[in-house]
Amino acid sequence: MIVDRHTLDFTSASDLPTIVRFVTSAARNGATGIGAGVDYMGSKTLHVGFGSRAVWGKGGKADNAPDWLKKAAAAGWAHPDLVPEYTVMARDGVRLRAGAGSDFNVLSTLPAGTRVFVLGKDGPGETWARVDLQGDGLMDGHINLPYLQEFSTGEPVGSEDEEIETDIGGNEDNAPKEQASH
Questions:
Q1: Given 4, 83, 106, 129, which residue has the most CB atoms within 10 angstroms?
Q2: Are 49 and 12 in a shared domain?
Q3: Would 27 be classed as within a structural domain?
Q4: Beta pairing class for 115-122 and 106-110
Q5: Does residue 165 have a pLDDT over 70?
Q6: What is the count of structural domains for the chain?
Q7: Which residues, at least 6 apart from 55, have a Cβ–Cβ distance to it below 8 Å?
């Protein structure tokens, strides 16, 4: 996986969360076979495919799959509809911002009717949505929640949505090399 010309490495604490979101999204969207491991294909390569539902690591064995991979895939398979689509409901569009608040830079303006995926909520009172514009599980920015409406039901976005456990760490062979900073 490459993000902003940087090849992600699942042994890096700063890269692992993005890789975990990708694996969860891939599993949620139908991928059934996912492999990774330092001694399998290296720390910068994942195998994502279809067929029997399985994860694997070194030697193509499930027992050798990194813990973070097992948990990320299981989360996606357990919640295939966890990230529903929403629609921008502001007549003049809504600003996609770099953070949860009007003081963050505007990345773009999304026109009315644009469909987005809400990955979670941030900011005071959780009034800002972390959104994914492409359905790949990667965050593209933040939108103020009152401007969104759930696409499938037409219900306004609330703050009662459940979130998946995101504490997905590595195992001994695939532990992050550095500590994540927040």
A1: 129
A2: yes
A3: yes
A4: unpaired
A5: no
A6: 2
A7: 33, 34, 35, 62, 65, 69, 70, 73
